[in-house]
Amino acid sequence: MRLSRRRAIQIGAGAVIAAAIPVGQHIAWGTRDYRRSDYSPDYPDPPAGEDSWVNWSGIEKATPRSIDLPDSEDAVAELLRGTRSRVRPMGSGHSFTGLVPSEGIMVDVSKLSGLVSYDGTTGLATFGAGTRLFQAAMELAELGRAFPNLPDIDVQTLAGSFATATHGTGTNLTALHDYVAGFRIVTASGDVLDVSSETNADFFAAGKVSLGALGIVTQYTLQTVPAFNLHRVLRAEPIEDVLDRAEALADQHRNFEFFYLPGTGIAATLTHDQHEGPMTGAAPSEDDETLEGLKQLRDEFGWWPWLRRRIAQSALPSGVLEDVSDQSWRLLSTTRPIKFNEMEYHLPRENGVETLRQIISMIDRRKDAYFPMEVRFVAPDNAWLSPFNEGPCLSIAIHAAVDEPYDYFFSDFEPVHRANGGRPHWGKIHSLGPAELTDLYTDYDRFLELRREMDPDGRFLNPYLAKLFGESFDV
Fold this sequence. Notes:
Layout: H1 5-18, H2 23-30, E1 53-54, E2 61-62, E3 66-68, H3 73-81, E4 87-90, E5 105-108, E6 115-119, E7 124-128, H4 133-142, E8 145-146, H5 158-163, E9 180-186, E10 192-195, H6 201-207, E11 216-223, E12 225-226, E13 229-238, H7 239-252, E14 255-261, E15 266-275, H8 287-301, H9 305-315, E16 319-327, H10 328-332, E17 340-348, H11 352-364, E18 373-378, E19 393-401, H12 408-419, E20 423-424, H13 434-440, H14 444-454, H15 463-469
Parallel strand pairs: 3-5, 4-5
Antiparallel strand pairs: 1-2, 6-7, 7-11, 8-12, 9-10, 9-11, 13-15, 13-16, 14-15, 14-18, 17-19, 17-20, 18-19
Helix pairs in contact: 1-8, 1-9, 8-9, 11-12
């Protein structure tokens, strides 16, 4: 959906003249500074001899004593047997919460990557836990296999994706951790366990979404499916039309999601369906240009919501914007070059659209919001800490530019999600603690008990996890 800055300003200038708008008010709005005061993309300065780490969006930072890169499972076990320091596993840094930072040892599992084995009879594929999603998808494609579904960002490690319940979209499609048939994990004592539903059903149910709190996973064995192709259609439509049809569209298409462009009244719907026959290949992304155009609309005309909406609806295209076909992994998941901060809540599907209407109305009243919202549908599974383990969900993700304030996520939007039975994405910012999480998750106390049994000294804790689990934390 291309919206160039030039196009937005050309139409906007004409609208300003036609509407005889007070120029002073327009200029005053245009001089606002949206940058938040505490924004810094830089790595923190570490003490002498220590390391430095920052997550993708820059809101989580650490100066660990060391960042270790073991190249084998034995090296991970040796590391854990040889230290009494706090230890946190790390992936690609795409979580916005404080799951990873540690002032002890951070363990980068990226060298534990690639396809380890594949069983052509069962379709089971074993990968190193540090394998990035795009690498795993490509290696599966070479075998004529695929993941049943993928999220929208492809650079996460398998370990990070599963541990935080990362998901894609689809009424009948579960989150990624539901593909796990087994895993190998190194515990706090340095022991290596081979875990499946047959060997240890409780550990398996807890470990699929573990927040990295039970140990360091070194391998995953995944259930794959035969490779398949998809037909993708991107449309620009009025948001009210999309909301009226959202449930039906989700049931009609293999994958359905949509993006709402705040302050415009316009949504971009995205559908994927199984495809047979010749393929066109994927189209080049226009997301960057559209985001710049939406930002410019906010910067220039956000002071008058009516005018901003009118300009957007004149400048943005409508109808079918993209109609392509390609291999599933090439269409479902991409790299996001423009950084942001995000809150995502998963709502029970039965009241998801009603809640979404409220959220959209609220974000339209915020003159400073411009980053698109993302709405997806997820099927249930049975992992103890899966946000989807009590039924189908509608997921609502709101974003703010990486350098802009996001405190209103907590003050304005989180209470609405909470009042409607929402559960937060484990990797996206939220303010919940053990009392709220115990109310939301039937098996939360069971998970905490298992965690204490596996890690009685709290070696895998950091301040953030200690807060989530209601544990004390001494540095």
